């Protein structure tokens, strides 16, 4: 699958005058390498739900999994719009990345097999999944798998110079 190169824009309202739009390849590398993400979903009554989880960057999208009875899975049955966030726990250095998009179920056995391999490569053998009927299977049970292709991504450079870049994707 070809890699997507989004359009980058520096938001001068929230950026140092010395800043320039960040390079997408650095943000994509951070999404690939980050170990922990924060997933925001919306409860049926409209309240937000935020939880940490692990995810893999594969084929220009973030992928995560969850048990079918977990709050995030229940929320996604009603509203598939999500935000995934990762970053540095510092105010003066590093980069934060915020991905907005739609969480779409992955059920294709071949795609699930590729993602299962990606989890092991990134997180080690404790995260070994087999492929069941449209799901991951693990000793703890079944997990639904979701793909979030970015619609919009925000990058927040911290330190000197600080800056806010927005990348827009054409889907």
Q: What's the number of structural domains?
A: 1
Which consecutive residue ranges, at least 5 long each, have pLDDT under 50? none
What is the CATH fold-level name? Pnp Oxidase, Chain A
By CATH, the architecture is named Roll
Mean pLDDT: 95
Task: Describe this structure in a few short sentences.
This protein is an alpha+beta fold and 171 residues long. Helix content is 19%, strand content 42%.
Please, could you describe this protein's structure?
It is built from three helices and eleven strands, in the order βαββββαββαββββ. It has 171 residues and is an alpha+beta fold. The chain has one domain: Roll (Pnp Oxidase, Chain A). Strands 1, 2, 3, 4, 5, 6, 7, 8, 9, 10 and 11 form an eleven-stranded antiparallel beta sheet that branches. The model has no long low-confidence stretch (mean pLDDT 95).
Question: Which features characterize this protein?
Answer:
171 residues, alpha+beta, Pnp Oxidase, Chain A, eleven-stranded antiparallel sheet, 3 helices, 42% strand, F420H2_bilvrd_red/Heme_oxyg, Pyridoxamine 5'-phosphate oxidase family protein, Pyridox_Oxase_N, Split_barrel_FMN-bd
Question: What are the SSEs and their pairings?
Answer:
Layout: E1 7-10, H1 24-33, E2 37-42, E3 48-53, E4 56-58, E5 61-66, H2 71-78, E6 81-86, E7 95-106, H3 109-123, E8 130-131, E9 136-138, E10 141-157, E11 163-168
Antiparallel strand pairs: 1-11, 2-3, 2-6, 4-5, 5-10, 6-7, 7-10, 8-9, 9-10, 10-11
């Amino acid at each position: 699958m070809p890699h997507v190169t989004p359009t980058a824009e520096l938001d001068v309202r929230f950026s140092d005058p010395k800043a320039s739009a960040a390079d997408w390849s650095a943000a994509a590398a951070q999404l690939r390498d980050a170990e922990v993400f924060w997933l925001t979903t919306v409860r049926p009554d409209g309240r937000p739900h935020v939880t940490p989880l692990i995810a893999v960057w594969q084929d220009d999208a973030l992928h995560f999994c969850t048990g079918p009875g977990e709050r995030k899975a229940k929320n996604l049955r009603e509203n598939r719009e999500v935000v995934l966030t990762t970053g540095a726990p510092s105010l003066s250095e590093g980069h934060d990345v915020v991905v907005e998009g739609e969480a779409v179920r992955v059920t294709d056995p071949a795609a699930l097999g590729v993602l299962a391999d990606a989890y092991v490569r990134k997180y080690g053998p404790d995260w070994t999944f087999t492929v069941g009927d449209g799901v991951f299977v693990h000793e703890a049970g079944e997990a639904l798998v979701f793909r979030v292709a970015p619609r919009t991504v925000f990058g927040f450079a911290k330190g000197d110079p600080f800056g806010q870049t927005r990348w827009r994707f054409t889907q």
